[in-house]
Amino acid sequence: MDEKDIRGTVLNVLSLEDSVRDFEIISEQLINAGFDLNISRVETQKEFTASLSGNKYDIILADFKLPGFDAFGALRIALEKCPGVPFICVSGSIGEELAVELLKSGADDYILKDRLERLPFAIKRAIDDSKEKHARSRAEKALKVNISRLELAMQSANMAWWEMDITTGNVAFHKRKTEMLGYSADKFTHYKDFMALVHPEDCEKAMDAMKRHIEGSVDKYEVEYRILTSTGEYKWFFDIGTIVERGSKGEPLFVTGLVVDITIYKQAEAAILKRIVDLEEFHKLVVGRELKMIELKKEINELAKQLGEDKERYKTSG
């Protein structure tokens, strides 16, 4: 770490130190290192607690042993009051076992007072590590929120993700997929396990769709199929996937995708098609009856005409 990384950095420090002389030496060391220093000194537990409650600090420096107080007690208070602020023990003497125990308890570092030249760099490293942890924590929280949102979206849409290792045929399904089918999470571990439950009429097209995508003749894997559920009924699914990882020679290694339960739409489609057929049959029936009525009316008219002609002949002959 270079001094230029430190120079000009604003540093707000709380120093738990009962020696005014040691405090001055520590302050001088940090100023000489290039920090824009704002440092406060406290000696007692009460002062230390009050300072943490009313101020914000970039770092806490604590002597190991003070009258009626020590670094372990200070660390516990610091972790409670300001858990994100780095804590460094600066001591005249501290045994290795105590130093290790202090680090395990949550301290970021310890520096011996006869080696204060290390302090500026230890502070810089501790602050950088703290910022990295904070950023990682924020990212993890954001990721958890996004995952929760995705879970809700997939649940609302009857959707689930899946993935397959092309080289081994091993598959993994999101829990929503197994829930939709009513099986345990370990039901499908290989592509063959899954295909064994696909409707016989849909097996060939499903396997062909995957084969064509892996071979590169189509940009994505896309197919509709029926699969047997744990209750013995078939459900319709729409599957779409794509290759997400390739080897050094461009060979496909990994496929992932989404699957959607479209059973309700297929049932609605079937109901609509049946209704159309029924309407066509009804139309044929109505039209057929109308044609029959026309023919019957024509026959009646012809019979009436014939009857009239027979009456006229009867009158004439009479």
What does this structure look like?
This protein is an alpha/beta fold and 318 residues long. It folds into 3 domains: 3-130, 3-Layer(aba) Sandwich (Rossmann fold); 159-261, 2-Layer Sandwich (Beta-Lactamase); 274-318. The chain contains 9 helices and 12 strands. It has helices at 20-33, 45-54, 71-81, 96-105, 119-156, 175-181, 191-195, 200-215, 263-317, and strands spanning 10-16, 36-42, 59-62, 65-66, 69-70, 87-91, 109-112, 159-165, 171-173, 221-228, 234-246, 252-261. The strands form 3 sheets. It has a 5-stranded parallel sheet with strand order 2-1-3-6-7, sandwiched between helices. Strands 9-8-12-11-10 form a 5-stranded antiparallel sheet. Helix 2 (45-54) runs parallel beside helix 3. The longest helix is centred in the last third of the chain and has 55 residues, at 263-317. It is elongated, with a radius of gyration of 42 Å. The protein starts with 9 loop residues before the first strand and ends with a helix.
